[in-house]
Amino acid sequence: MTGMTYNNSYDVAAVMLCVSCIFYFLMSKRIRHFKHTLYAILCGCVLTGSLSNIFAGYFARIHHPVAANLAINTYFLVNVLTMCVFGLYVQCMNGYLMNRHKKYYLLYSIPAVLAALLIGANFFLHFLFYYDADCRYVRGEAFLLMHLLTVFYLVQTIYTIIRNAVFVQKQKIIYLLSGLGLVIAGIVVQMLFRQLQIQLFTEAVMLTLMSIVFENASLEVDPDLNIYKRKVFLDFYKTVCDLKSEMTLIAISLVNTEQLLSTLSSEEKAAAFRSVCEKLSKLVGHNNVYTYTTEKYAVMLERRNVRNYNIVENDFLIALEAMFNQSWSVGDKKVFFNALVTVIHLPEDAESVTLDSIFHRGRNLNFVDSNMILRDHKDVDILRKRTRMLNAVRRACENRSFLVYYQPIWSVDTRSVVSAEALVRMDDPELGFIPPDEFISAAEEYGLISDLGEIVLEKVCEFCATYHPEQYGIEWIELNVSPYQLGDANIVQKFAKILQKYNIPVSFINLELTETVDVFRNGIFEDTLRQLKDFGFTFSMDDYGTGYSNLANLMSNNYRTVKIDKSLLWKATDKEGMDFLMITVNQLKSIKLQVLQEGVETKEQLDIITAFGGNLIQGYYFSKPIPDREFIAYCKGRAVLP
Length: 642
Ligand code: C2E
Ligand code: CA
Ligand code: CA
Prior knowledge:
Blueprint: H1 9-27, H2 34-61, H3 65-93, H4 102-125, E1 129-131, E2 137-139, H5 144-163, H6 170-192, H7 199-213, H8 217-220, H9 230-243, E3 247-254, H10 257-261, H11 266-284, E4 289-293, E5 296-302, H12 309-324, E6 328-330, E7 333-335, E8 339-346, H13 355-359, E9 372-375, H14 377-399, E10 403-411, E11 416-428, E12 432-434, H15 436-445, H16 449-467, E13 476-481, H17 491-502, E14 509-513, H18 517-520, H19 524-535, E15 538-544, H20 551-555, E16 561-564, H21 566-570, H22 575-590, E17 594-597, H23 603-612, E18 616-618, E19 626-627, H24 628-637
Parallel strand pairs: 8-9, 11-13, 13-14, 14-15, 15-16, 16-17, 17-18
Antiparallel strand pairs: 1-2, 3-5, 3-8, 4-5, 6-7, 10-11, 10-18, 10-19, 11-12
Helix pairs in contact: 1-2, 1-7, 2-3, 2-7, 3-4, 3-5, 4-5, 6-7, 11-12, 14-15, 16-17
The chain binds ligand C2E and calcium ion (2 copies).
């Protein structure tokens, strides 16, 4: 019989759960976000619902039909609102709300408004449900209408989950669906067994789960920087890319942190980074700033919904530049941060650029005019090309598909080919044949040079073990080693292992080095150089006459050969150029170094360098770099040269 009193224990439990959820919500410090606002509203709804259900029962028991009706109408209204807000919350989580216009929210709220109107009318007309004069609960003819509205929101919510399922982490979907399942179970049980007023309790349990899984501030806010964590950014970025939402990513990488921070204590360091994040949050809203790493931050701005969008973006960039051009006070010190800022328009720009390359700080950035360097569309294009190049190098490293060509080196004394320079080549399935000048620097920049170098050495050793070039008068092979490879502490062991594997004597490999300022600065270069030397390697100094290479370094006794850069030879067309070349050769020979001239293309050039006393010659005049078998054929055919 319908007039019996219900057991309200479940509602009391629901009230208690809601109150703890609200308490937890208020206590934890989080970044303001629409999602959290919705969660708070949701807690309020379930709390109001449970309380009104308790009151409805109570007033019915004490035979106060008006109050009971007021409570029961509130209960049903809140019921629909709960589903409405929960639906919005879910759509916030699964990216369905991203870039939505106001219109969407208006349409979405129509059933809720309808529910409010119906309930308002029901209070007087009693066509849905009511307590009669004896305080007995009666269902009206149109009772199912209320359930229809609830079901609408349920269906819509499930639809958005399925619709965006591919874009969202599986874990999130499982949590969302199980929460939803719990509530549906509650509704069904309550429909079937009316004494079990369990629906609000299941909703409160769901709120509790949500507060642990989704609303846990410590899961999303970086405790040191007080902005969103990297994980939150990566998830969001992925969702934006998957949904092809129109967003702008502004990647901010602090560049000079290492130099700066050597003067700061670890607390000061943390404070410095934190104050940068704080300023960023102030400029663009806490909600839009994310951690990429401790020294790199992301700002994400919605594009479609903001009117005068570009003004917003430009304003921000101008403010950003002003911010970096001011000093930061850390303790009693003042520091300047140099920042590399990259603007990426999603989704179009994201194609074939990785986040790592967007945030990559690169080398040789010039912060003379400003403490901020801005990379825009044009630069992103370069970045994209570079990323393609990087991917090609990665592929080639993985498949060990680099080719090694050999360029003969001719001895003036014996008038025969005595050596060859091993030169790496890359034939990429996507990008085709790429010259080393383009991909070596990419490999150096992204830390792949060490792998590349090892592969080249291994190919060279394999070549020597297969063709025995020593049979054709080849006394050694010149192998290029990038200065960045010398940063690899294990290079000696790695090289030793490869030589051993193919049984190649260390004296058969001569390493070519180009000394550059930025590597030479930190003692690693000399350290590794000494280790390689102790192991038995000999060295050539490459590209002599350009850049950093100088006589002082050569006197250090590390080098056997000096390769004079082709530009010096090519400039020897007038007296001045000739003199310069001659003096250079004489200088080098006076300190007992073997002189190798590269880039000899003509008979005249050959005559000049021979006359000046060069020992070894390399250049197109003899041969371009050629594949291994061709090189062997070349040696066979020309054991002695003109
Ligand atoms: P490099 O060490 O100065 O090598 C000489 C470059 O000059 C080669 O270019 C060679 O093909 C070219 N060359 C030789 N003779 C002539 C000539 O008579 N005329 C002209 N115009 N060019 C000549 P390549 O093979 O394109 O290599 C470019 C650079 O890439 C090399 O410059 C070297 O720095 C780097 N590289 C090549 N292979 C490797 C490698 O295995 N490891 C590393 N780390 N770097 C490499
Ligand atoms: Ca070289
Ligand atoms: Ca060279």
